[in-house]
Design brief:
81 residues, elongated, 3 helices
């Protein structure tokens, strides 16, 4: 249940950030990179919750936060420039 709740907390905002980057003209490779890192991070996090592997869970959340930071920075940079 916690895995579903964590997914529901982060993925909608991430999808909005990626959509915002697309609207602002992000490169296709950039957008696909977001998607790959997001999916990998979420899969690592889910596996870690079931296995009880804390380092794997941290890696999954770091990947998720990395997408949030990079997508947000891209949107802010495009809005300012």
């Amino acid at each position: 249940m916690h895995a579903h709740a964590n997914f529901a907390e982060y993925v909608p905002i991430l999808l909005l950030l990626v959509a915002g980057a697309i609207v602002l003209g992000a490169n296709a490779y950039f957008v696909h990179g977001y998607g790959i890192v997001l999916i990998a991070g979420r899969l690592l996090h889910a596996k870690a919750l079931y296995d009880g592997n804390i380092p794997l869970r941290v890696a999954g959340m770091l990947a998720t936060f990395a997408v949030i930071v990079v997508a947000s920075a891209y949107i802010i940079a495009k809005a300012v420039i």
